[in-house]
Known about the structure:
alpha+beta, Ribosomal Protein S5, domain 2, five-stranded mixed sheet, 23% strand, 4 helices, 34% helix
Amino acid sequence: MEVINALGRRKTAVARVYLTEGKxxxxxxxxxxxxxxxxxxxxxxxxQPLFLCEVAGQYDIxxxxxxxxxxxxxxxxxxGISRALLKISADYRPKLKAAGFxxxxxxxxxxxxxxxxxxxxxxxxxxx
Length: 128
């Protein structure tokens, strides 16, 4: 099996996923999954598509993660892994789609406007 690559994005995080047959190792920016995401919930978020398709431990995953915070990176990685699994087999599509793992979350941070302290917050108005 050749290397399968896919891209996942969330907020400003970008995950480039490279999937090969192996023993289930997940390497992120040349570090282990447990080391890169020390929080258990984020490790679970990353592995959700693998558990759902019952292929955990069958593929080695190498990832280049860039931008964003930890949660955004974990969710970008989840989308990238889901897209890579689709390239392996289209049979996974109904499960992944039902779980919502194939939808790119479009929410981004709104930009700060000039003359305001934040994006929507206004300075206090005083009539006199």
